[in-house]
Amino acid sequence: MQPKSVTTSPSPLVLGHKDGGPESAEPPYHVRTVDFICVFATFDRDAVRRSLPAELEPAYEEPGFLALYTAPTGWGIAPYSAFFLALPVVGFNSPDGSHGYFMVEGYYTGRAGPIMHDLYNRRLQPGEVRHWNDGRHWHGEVGDPASPMIHMRATPVLPRPATPLTAGVHHYLGERHGGGLNIYSVAYSTEFYPVEDVQLDILPSASPLMRSLQPETVVFSSLCMQMPLTFGPPRPIGTPPAEVVLESARMSLLDLLSRLGRPAALISESGRVIFINGEGETLLAGAIHSGQFEAWRTSDRGQVRRTIETAARSGPSVLPEPIALEGHEQGRPVILQAIPVSSVLAGEPAALVMFSDPARPMDGDPTAALELLGLTRAEARIAARVGAGQTTKEAARDIGITDNTLRSTLQVVYDKLDIQKQSELARIVVRLEGFGSTSVAG
Description:
The protein is α+β, with helices and mostly antiparallel strands. The protein is 26% helix and 32% strand. Strand 2 (64-75) and strand 3 (80-89) form a beta hairpin.
């Protein structure tokens, strides 16, 4: 599979972490949030107009939203808690079709406070945000505990099933220091739990701007128990659209890696760790030094380097053989599988490197990894089933599509993976499936 041509020069994704640790100097940042309360509401039209920079046009037909959440873990800016209010604007739609949002006001604790203010949006600032639940209600407060600015309370409908997993990329805008506007992408994936009761109080100690945006009507609200977020670097408004779209695709890639359900890292041809998920952080403790992935034993490092280089230079149909690494701190071997990833998305030649600790059961299936090879979610579901040995009729029946639709989609899969028959697909799927569960998710 050849990467699509893009009329912009890809910039490397640089985490700048120290010895594999979670602190990064520059975006992208990745955090794993919990108890994300989101309230979509309408506001006074005149207040909306006054709250936006003159160069932005409000999308009056769409609700804005207020959000409060905690990010206990992640890369770069965690841990922190946050509250913000965002309003939709015209002309900056995200790849998923949703409007771009201008961040009107927000407060962030910890390291996130100065970073969000200095780098992303001067309207976002360090502040006090508290977040807790009493087993029935989820609460949040913003500001001095003695005189809070904002209080939120939500009552989720539990254990009612959540919506299916939803993933996407939103564009956010903010004011730059010195004038002008930023735009940046945030990838997310989550399940939404309905909320039956929301109490939102914007109190007298809040800013005049916040008080003017007291919601008129709550359109809907939800609780997301877990929501990974990946923040792309801010770019000035006027950045070529192709570059903004590319940045969104990169954030989607990192979001997908964060929810693979198995230890994984995006590693450059030279061995630099571009991104590593939470499971990978845990497993590879002691194997990353000064941002470079190295095997525990010196004798394994040459083979690791060659395997990653081969994957970084290959197409999706070429998967180097898995290798076993010795010297893990628990005394067990770790299995490594390198998978090609588009250098356009990674910003440089790179490979997705998945790890398996044979003594620990892994969660997941090959579908997410197949997406990393360039397949859509629907194509990956078909490839996973057919590659695992199902007939086209069986796979079509289980997925709920016609046999003809499945066959035509399967041909697209073969074209994208540069293969010609089911046995070649099976070889790819078996490799990937070996790093997850033996079942194929629907």
